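FOLDING PROBLEM:
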Amino acid sequence: MKKLVAMLLVLSMVFMFVGCGSSAPANSPTGGASDSGKEPYLIGVSVPTVEMTFFAKMQTELKAKYPNERVVVEFFNSADNQEKQNKDVEDMIAKGMDGIVIIPITVEGAVPAIQYANEKNVPVITVDRQITEDADCEVLGFVGSDHKPMGVGCAELLVEGLEKMYPNEPEWIVVELTGTPGSSAAIDRGAGIHEVLDPIDKVTVKTFNGEFLTTTATNIAADVLISGVDGKPVHAFACHNDMMAEGVYQALVNAKMLDKVVVTGIDGQMSTVQKVADGEIAGTVLQYPAMVTLGVELICDHLDGKEVDKINFYETTKVSKDNAQSLIDDGSAY
């Protein structure tokens, strides 16, 4: 490592993170210990957008833990623009980053940036979202939730809510609001949702692209609450994230239909978990933003010459009215 250049970069970083401590589930994997006496590694972290609560919380987790004697982190917000994310990776490499943690916007879009990092011998770890399996590039590993089981949990909570609200209804009309097209999270969460719902004869699913966004979800929900699906009233919304569940919630409040439609989400953000505790949203599936710090630690482990597991799954938790308040009280919801 070019020590003088690296230290100048450390001093000039605009987004250098300061603080101490970060929380993670007790049974999740942890990174290696600090290597005191060594110059800190420079690690770039790229997220799709801080407009999404989950990624904004990741930024908070990074600020709380870094810098320390082992690593300094620079944070990059892609603003949901794949071209910008790829350019950010190029900038990281130009700045002399020792490693890169990236949450790809789509499974294919970030591949050219990772290929460039490979050419420059800069290790890359993906967090939360993966790239396509047959991509012509190499990542050191993946850290994140297994999104398909999260989709399964979302759908199971939805069915439980429908059984309570509409036990005798001959047909359940369900609207699925999907996330960013082409993202591994949306692909896998959707697969999990359909694994549960498709075998149920009385379920009809209508899918809309909600883009993981609250406003988009509100607008879609407002329309279908009026028009229905093929003229039939909607009984439930299965949302690929909590931001969209919040958008549906707002549409239901506006239409005075909150007690007539079942809503579930995924992610576990505080506002949604509170609504689950209050009985206003049927459930969600909690994942933990601290996973991003594990990605940073594993990059450092690799740079220290340690072996790193290829797949590092983080735990998730189904959230219903039964356990929502306890997850709020213990700080798990964010």
